Amino acid sequence: MSERTPDPARPRTVLLRGGEVHSPADPFATAMVVEGDSIAWVGEEGAADSFADGVDEVVHLDGALVTPAFTDAHVHTTATGLALTGLDLSGARTLPDALARVREYAAARPADRVLLGHGWDATAWPEGRPPSRAELDAATGGRPLYLTRVDVHSAVVTTALLDLVPGLRDLPGFHAEQPLTGAAHHAVRAAAHATVTPAQRDAAQAAALAHAASLGIGSLHECAGPDISSEDDFTALLARAAREPGPRVVGYWAETVTNAKDADRIRELGAIGAAGDLFADGSLGSHTAHLHAPYADADHTGTAHLDAHAVAAHVAACTEAGLQAGFHAIGDAALTAVTDGVRAAADRVGLARVRAARHRVEHAEMLTGATIAAFAEFALTASVQPAFDAAWGGEDGMYAARLGAERARTLNPYAALLRAGVPLALGSDSPVTPLNPWGTLRAAVFHRTREHGISARAAFTAHTRGGWRAIGRDDAGVLVPGAPADYAVWRTGDLVVQAPDERVERWSTDPRSGTPGLPDLTPGRDLPVCLRTVVGGRTVYGRPNE
């Protein structure tokens, strides 16, 4: 690597050469020039010589792959950081294992006012049930504990935490011997999170952003709201991201809008939309997703939080205010309510205005042909999480237990969405599933229901450019001249082109096709290792000793 003394009046320039640059501008590119915070040139090695003497730094890639940085389109940053730094039960394999981890954590944190934990999933345990309140009371020595299920739509708590929330036992969703849901869950969550000190919150946010950067993630969409976090948490995160080098953070605040004053308040918080986890329903794992027909393992249809009338009012008000709207919707009944509501809003304010606003729907799992067609008609972005299918799909997975195998096979139909022209943005919903962009792509390509799988190229586009398009930016998430210099450098094996149809794979791996390759995502193969992450031309992560 060589450097020269930069002229402070001129943007710093960097030449990366001797690798593989994933760019639609040149499918055979091996080099790239960055000037300041933008991509200046992409091309082949022979032409790179003409830039070498005029740049401030030359980075010799030694065969490494350069791609656009990933965008994770659905994250809960502070909760992710708390899981990284605190009690994470996602690795617990049995109920006794989970209780032992709770006991060990409580002993190690004697000063915490409320013990916080996340990630249990009783559907994966041989006991088939969550820990009881008595078991948690014993494991914590009678201290307050808030422990969310992996989907964060229900929680188990200790008696001491219940006692901190007056009137809790009278709220909807309170169950004496079952996980708390609905209003009861929101109340205990607010009480538990209120005990997190500013120092704890700051450390959690720093840990989450540093972890994201180490995975080649250059942008996060923070999905916050009054039922999830707090305004202080949200504004502190946006301030941190603006102040310190790291991934970009785009904020959504999940609160309904009925007029211009409401919209102004959303903007004053720093949010770009009244969207994200604005709940139309809950989750399948907690039996709170809203279904047209009852669950296979419960005699009800879940919980509806918004009907079509409420959706229409929100979408119309946001559209008129020039603000992005969006909803959390998982069950087929919730998705019907959302699409019917958007249709009513379009009738009120005009289809073209609704389409131009790029409203979005998070998760969008139980889609039908009618709701997919509505997504396409109204240009709704489907913000989806392929790792959900990897974790809970398949003939023996949680989806099949909740819905029966036939309904479960209809979930997360990514190929059908793309065929209909619906824009996709991929994410993790971390800490529900981990930040893991290449794992997310693998889950999208090798879907547990084969006909729903998509090509690696389509998934990669949805996890890079798709996240930018979801916030109204069509000029980013791709390595072409003029685009923001948000990129990652990877150590990886041979590059291939993967698609669900093997005939496409054979054609696309022919060099004459001019299709840029990507790492082999076949299950069992090693995923790429991030060597460097750059955001706006600034290095925000460098792998030690590389």
Protein model, in words:
The protein is an alpha/beta fold and about 550 residues long. It has three domains: about 90 residues, Urease, subunit C, domain 1 (Roll), CATH 2.30.40.10; about 120 residues, Diaminopimelate Epimerase, Chain A, domain 1 (Roll); about 240 residues, TIM Barrel. Helices cover about 35% and strands about 20% of the residues. The protein has 21 helices and 23 strands. The strands form six sheets. A five-stranded mixed sheet has the order 2-6-19-22-23, with helices on one face. Strand 8, helix 3 and strand 9 form a beta-alpha-beta unit. Helix 3 packs parallel to helix 4 and helix 18 packs antiparallel against helix 19. The protein is globular, with a radius of gyration of 24 Å. The N terminus is likely disordered. It comes from Streptomyces rimosus subsp. rimosus. Its EC number is 3.5.1.91. GO terms for molecular function: hydrolase activity. It holds the Pfam family Amidohydro_3. This is N-substituted formamide deformylase.
Q: Taking strands numbered 1, 2, ... along the chain, how are they ordered across the largest sheet?
A: 2-6-19-22-23
Global Rg: 24 Å
Give unreliable regions as ranges. Answer: 1-6, 503-513
CATH class term of the largest domain: Alpha Beta
**Percent in strands:** 15-25%
The tally of strands reads 23
Overall 3D form: globular
Span between termini: 13 Å
Major sheet: size, sense and barrel closure?
A: 5 strands, mixed
Number of helices: 21
CATH superfamily of the largest domain: Metal-dependent hydrolases
**Structural class by helix and strand composition:** alpha/beta
| Percentage of residues assigned to helices | 25-40%
Mean of the pLDDT scores? 93
Keywords: Hydrolase
Region (Disordered): 504-523
Enzyme class: hydrolase
InterPro entries: Amidohydro_3, Metal-dep_hydrolase_composite, Metal_Hydrolase, YtcJ-like
